[in-house]
Specification:
The complex is a heterodimer. Chain A is of the alpha/beta class. Chain A is built from 16 helices and 15 strands. A seven-stranded mixed β-sheet of chain A has the order 7-6-8-9-10-14-15, sandwiched between helices. Chain A has a five-stranded parallel β-sheet with strand order 2-1-3-4-5, with helices on both faces. Chain A has a three-stranded antiparallel β-sheet with strand order 11-12-13, with helices on one face. Chain A is globular, with a radius of gyration of 22 Å. Chain B has helices at residues 2-32, 39-58, 66-88, 99-121, 130-133, 147-169, 171-181, 183-188, 193-215, 226-240, 245-265, 272-284, and strands at residues 137-140, 143-146. The chains are: A alpha/beta, B mainly alpha.
C-alpha cells in the first residue's frame, strides 16, 4: 500500500490531485483501526468473538461500498479500513501495554475496543495522555464519564444504568406482580453494580417489594446447585440475574430441571446472547434484556434488516448484543471520520478533528438512534428493549412481548449520575 | 429441619464433584511429588471429550443410559492420549528437581492445553444434555433434585474406594506404595519405577478427565472452565494434606459443607469461606489435616 504520509513531495502532488479529483486520493490511503476485544477467555464466546465477527463483515461491506446510505461511501471517506485486532485478555496492565503498542508501534489512527469495565477505566487516561481518539464500544461502568472527563475518549454505547432501570420499567409495564425478589449476580463489579442499580430502581417502581435473597457466586463458578436450592427455598416472586456467558448458561442448565424457572419469574438483564447457543433448550417465560434494542428486539428498519442479513449470511446465527455494539461504534466512527473530512478539506482527520466531529454527534445505527449527549458529549444514550422468551410457530425459542423504551426514559440526564438519578425517582425521564 | 437437610445435601453434592477432581491431584502428588497445575486443563479436556464421544455412541442407537458409560470412555481416551504424552514426553526429565520448577512446568502445560483446546474446539460452547436426564428427578423435602447430581456422590465413593483398594489391596498398589516410601530401594528390587509413575499419572489424568466429563452436562463447555476448578481443588488438597486420599475426602467435605452453609447464611462470604477454612487449617496444621509431618503417605 502506497503511504502518502512518508513521501513529502509526492504527498503534496497527491494532495493537489485530491482537491481536483475528490475522493480519488483517499482511495490510495488507508485508515488503521485498532480493535481490542476478547478473543480468548470466558468473555470470548459471548462477547469478544461475536463482536469481531460483526466488525469483520461490516468493515468488509464498508470497504466494498455495499452498505446502505448514509454508509455507502467506500471505506472511511474513500480510505480503505485496515483493522488491527488485539486480544483483550490478560487484564488492565497488559491492555495498557497493548494500547501503547497499537498507538506507538502500529500507528493506528483510532482505537475501538474494550468489553471489560476495568480495562476501560485503565485505558481512558492513557488515551488522553497519548492524545489518541479512542472509542469504548461495550464496557458498562458509569464511572468512565461520571468520575472523570476526557477529550479523546468516547463511549458509543449507553452505560449500565439503563439495563436495570429499563428492566424495572418493563416489569411494571407488563403488570408483573412483585412482592419479593432475589438476586444472583457474579461476585465482581459488574454483578454488584447491576444488583445495586436493580434494587434502587425497584425501590422506585415497586416500593413495597422486599429482597428475599442476595447471592454472589464467584465469576466462572460453574456449579450453582446450592444457589438454586437457596433460591427455591426463598420462593421469591422474581429472580434477577446479570450472569453472562457460561455462568448464565450453567445456571439455566442446572436450574431448568429443578423447576427454578417455574417457581419464580426469572429476569436476565443481559442474557440475550445465551439464546442462540441454547436454542430450543432455552426456558420459556424468561424476561431477557440485551443492553440495548438488539437482536430479536432491534427496530424493523432498512439498516437493521441489511445488517442482520449481512451477519446471518456470514455466520448463520442472529446477531446479539456484542456485534450490535461493535456495529454502532463502527457506524458512528465512519460518519465521524467523513464529517471531519468534510470540515478539513478531505484529508485524513487527526484525533483532535475526530473528537470535534464525534462530540455531541448522533447517528442511526442498526439498533436505533445513538446520541452522544452525556459525559460532556462523549457518552452515548440509546433506546433499550426487553422481551420474554417464547416459542414461535417453528418451535424455536425467540423473544416476544417486546417493549422498547426511549433513550431518555432509561438514561439519566447529562448532568446527573446514574445512581443519583435512580434514587431521586428518575427526574426528567421522558418515556412517551 | 428442611433447611439443614438442604444445606447438607447441597454441600455433599458439591463435595462429591470436588473430591473426584481433587483425588487425581492428590494421587499424582503422593506418588510423583508433582503439584500438577495441568490438572485443570485435563479436566477441561475431559468435558470436551464427553461432548464429542457421547453423541458419537448415541448415533449408534444405544440406550440413553449408555451416555453415562460413554463419559467413562471419554475420560479413558483422554488419559490414554495425554498421560504418556505429558509424563513420558516432559515430566520425567524433571523428576527430582525443585518442586517449584515442576509447578511452573505443569503450569506451562496448563496454558498449552488451554490454547490447544481453543485451536481444536474453537471458542463456541458445546452442550451435553442426555446424561442428566437419565436418572430423572427426586423430591427431597420441598425441593426437586436431579438424580444425576445425587449420583455424583456415588461416583465419588466409587472413585475414592477404587483408588484406595487399588493401592492397598492389589500387588501393583503395594509396589506403588513401596515406590512412594523408598524409590531407590524399590528400583534395586527390580521395580520398574517409570511404569509405576506412568500408571499413577495416568490414573490422575483419568480422574481429572472424569471430573470434567461428568461436569459437562451441567455447564456450557467452552474455554475458561479450567481455572476455577483447579484453584478450589488446590484448596481441598491443602486442607486435607497433599498426597492423602482420606485428606482429599475430608477436605472436599469441609469445603462443600462450608460453602453450602455460607450460601444460605452468609452469601456475601461464599467465596471467602473456602479460603478462610484453608487458612484456619494451615494455622493449626501447616501440613494439612491428614499428612504426618515429614512422612509421605497415600
Amino acid at each position: 500500500m502506497f503511504d502518502v504520509r512518508k513521501r513529502g513531495g509526492i504527498a503534496a502532488l497527491l494532495a493537489g490531485a485530491a482537491l481536483a479529483f475528490g475522493g480519488a486520493a483517499q482511495a490510495q490511503e488507508t485508515f488503521k483501526v485498532g480493535i481490542v476485544t476478547f478473543l480468548s477467555g470466558q468473555a470470548a464466546q459471548s462477547f469478544g468473538v461475536p463482536a469481531w465477527d460483526g466488525g469483520k463483515v461490516l468493515i468488509e461491506a464498508f470497504n466494498n461500498g455495499t452498505a446502505p446510505a448514509p454508509y455507502d461511501k467506500k471505506g472511511f471517506g474513500g480510505m480503505e479500513i485496515v483493522p488491527v485486532v488485539i486480544d483483550e485478555a490478560g487484564g488492565a496492565t497488559v491492555q495498557v501495554q497493548e494500547y501503547r503498542n497499537l498507538v506507538q508501534r502500529e500507528n493506528v489512527d483510532v482505537v475501538v475496543g474494550y468489553v471489560s469495565s476495568g480495562d476501560c477505566l485503565a485505558i481512558a487516561p492513557v488515551a488522553e495522555e497519548l492524545k489518541k481518539f479512542t472509542i469504548l464500544y461495550d464496557c458498562g461502568t458509569p464511572r468512565i464519564f461520571e468520575d472523570a472527563s476526557y477529550e479523546y475518549v468516547f463511549r458509543t454505547a449507553a452505560h449500565a444504568t439503563q439495563d436495570n432501570v429499563g428492566l424495572a420499567r418493563y416489569l411494571k409495564a407488563k403488570g408483573v406482580e412483585v412482592s419479593t425478589y432475589a438476586g444472583i449476580n457474579q461476585d465482581y463489579a459488574w454483578g454488584h453494580d447491576s444488583w445495586a442499580d436493580f434494587t434502587a430502581a425497584m425501590k422506585q417502581v415497586y416500593p413495597e417489594a422486599t429482597v428475599s435473597a442476595e447471592l454472589f457466586p464467584a465469576f466462572g463458578a460453574g456449579q450453582y446447585g446450592t444457589e438454586i436450592s437457596a433460591l427455591l427455598q426463598a420462593r421469591p416472586d422474581l429472580i434477577h440475574s446479570s450472569l453472562w456467558g457460561g455462568d448464565n448458561q450453567a445456571l439455566i442448565l442446572q436450574g431448568l430441571p429443578r423447576g427454578l424457572f417455574q417457581r419464580s419469574q426469572v429476569v436476565f438483564s443481559a442474557g440475550d446472547h445465551a439464546m442462540p447457543p441454547l436454542g430450543a433448550n432455552y426456558p420459556e417465560g424468561v424476561i431477557v434484556g440485551a443492553r440495548g434494542a438488539y437482536g430479536y428486539m432491534a427496530p424493523d428498519t432498512e439498516l437493521n434488516r441489511w445488517w442482520t442479513k449481512l451477519y446471518m449470511d456470514a455466520y448463520n446465527v442472529i446477531p446479539v448484543q456484542a456485534p450490535y455494539r461493535m456495529a454502532q461504534a463502527l457506524t458512528g466512527l465512519k460518519l465521524a471520520v467523513e464529517k471531519a473530512m468534510e470540515a478539513n478539506g478531505g484529508k485524513k482527520p487527526t484525533s483532535e478533528e475526530l473528537a470535534a466531529a464525534m462530540k455531541n454527534f448522533s447517528w442511526e445505527s442498526p439498533a436505533g438512534l445513538i446520541e452522544m449527549t452525556n459525559g460532556g458529549g462523549h457518552q452515548a444514550i440509546q433506546p433499550i428493549a426487553f422481551g420474554r422468551s417464547m416459542k414461535n410457530d417453528a418451535g424455536e425459542v425467540v423473544l416476544g412481548d417486546i417493549v422498547r423504551f426511549p433513550a431518555r426514559c432509561v438514561n439519566p440526564p447529562a448532568d446527573m449520575k446514574g445512581i443519583d438519578w435512580i434514587n431521586a425517582g428518575f427526574p426528567g425521564a421522558q418515556c412517551d | 429441619m428442611d433447611l439443614v437437610l438442604t444445606i447438607i445435601l447441597d454441600g455433599l453434592i458439591y463435595a462429591s464433584w470436588l473430591f473426584i477432581v481433587a483425588l487425581g491431584l492428590t494421587l499424582v502428588f503422593g506418588v510423583l511429588r508433582i503439584l500438577n497445575f495441568a490438572h485443570g486443563g485435563i479436566y477441561a479436556l475431559g468435558s470436551y471429550a464427553a461432548v464429542i464421544v457421547t453423541p458419537f455412541f448415541a448415533g449408534f442407537g444405544l440406550p440413553d443410559w449408555f451416555s453415562i458409560v460413554s463419559m467413562f470412555i471419554a475420560a479413558m481416551a483422554v488419559a490414554i492420549v495425554l498421560a504418556p504424552l505429558i509424563e513420558r514426553g516432559l515430566l520425567r526429565f524433571f523428576y527430582g528437581r525443585d518442586e517449584v520448577l515442576i509447578l511452573l512446568i505443569t503450569y506451562s502445560v496448563f496454558l498449552m492445553l488451554e490454547d490447544a483446546t481453543k485451536l481444536i474446539f474453537g471458542v463456541n460452547p458445546y452442550y451435553l444434555f442426555e446424561p442428566r436426564n437419565v436418572l430423572g428427578n427426586v423430591e427431597i423435602g420441598s425441593l426437586y433434585y436431579v438424580g444425576y447430581d445425587l449420583a455424583l456422590g456415588g461416583l465419588a465413593v466409587i472413585c475414592g474406594a477404587g483408588v484406595w483398594f487399588g493401592l492397598r489391596r492389589t500387588r501393583i498398589g503395594k509396589v506403588t506404595l513401596a515406590v512412594i516410601a523408598e524409590p531407590e530401594v524399590a528400583q534395586a528390587m527390580g521395580v520398574n519405577i517409570a511404569r509405576i509413575y506412568l500408571l499413577a499419572f495416568g490414573v490422575g489424568v483419568f480422574l481429572a478427565a472424569l471430573g470434567g466429563a461428568f461436569t459437562a452436562p451441567l455447564i456450557s463447555v467452552q474455554p475458561g472452565n479450567s481455572v476455577s476448578v483447579i484453584i478450589v481443588s488446590f484448596a481441598v488438597v491443602i486442607i486435607g494434606g497433599l498426597g492423602s486420599i482420606p485428606g482429599a475426602a475430608v477436605g472436599a467435605l469441609i469445603v462443600g459443607l462450608a460453602r453450602s452453609f455460607a450460601v444460605y447464611e452468609f452469601p456475601e462470604a461464599e467465596i471467602f469461606i473456602i479460603y478462610l477454612v484453608m487458612v484456619a487449617v494451615l494455622i493449626f496444621r501447616p501440613e494439612g489435616l491428614f499428612t504426618p509431618v515429614k512422612a509421605r503417605k497415600i
